[in-house]
């Protein structure tokens, strides 16, 4: 199946409101701490079928088994890979990259079209250097930071629960005992783990 997303988006910066018409296969948003990359698909992608990787300076996204990358290359600025993650939301694969420095990214990947960050090229926490209009946007900015952190925590918790479920099933299989999904759910519930579908 073709891995190329079907839509064209305009990357935006929530502070400057700048945007560029482009045919990039993703759109992005950012806060002082995080860069969020949204990759759209025709239908909801399945996480186990996706191959996503990032290092301090690089990012790649593709479908497993495909030689065609949706995104691959050098990031425009370094990130913290151990604090970054990704998840599926509706028909989007969302990559959440934690920035190494609190700077505005003019683009996600080196060589991509850039947005204008000149008006906010100042230390992000020195509010006195921001215009009145920019200062008014600070509450919404940090609301986005907190929401991103909540999503990361919920995703990590869900992964831990899924790993525990798979371990229980594997242990039973080794012992030659077949257990029902209901029995697995009962065991997880007894251990205080959330068995409800994750809503992000």
Structural overview:
With 200 residues, the protein is an alpha+beta fold. The chain has 2 domains: 27-124, Immunoglobulin-like; 137-200. Helices cover 26% and strands 20% of the residues. The chain contains 3 helices and 7 strands. It has helices spanning 132-136, 138-174, 181-190, and strands spanning 27-30, 34-40, 50-54, 58-63, 69-74, 85-89, 92-98. The strands form 2 sheets. The protein has a 4-stranded antiparallel beta sheet with strand order 1-2-7-6, covered by helices on one side. It has a 3-stranded antiparallel beta sheet with strand order 3-4-5, with no helix packed on it. A hairpin with a 5-residue loop joins strand 4 and strand 5. The longest helix has 37 residues, at 138-174. It is globular. Mean pLDDT is 75; it is low at 1-21.
Give the SSE string.
EEEEEEEHHH
Share in helix: 25-40%
In what order do the strands lie side by side in the largest sheet? 1-2-7-6
CATH fold annotation of the largest domain: Immunoglobulin-like
> How many distinct domains?
2
Mean pLDDT: 75
Approximate shape: globular
Query: What share of the residues does DSSP label as strand, in percent?
Result: 15-25%
Decide which structural class fits the backbone: alpha+beta
Per DSSP E runs of 2 or more residues, the count of β-strands stands at 7
Sketch the major β-sheet.
Answer: 4 strands, antiparallel
Task: Using the coordinates above, name the CATH class of the largest domain.
Answer: Mainly Beta
What is the helix tally?
A: 3
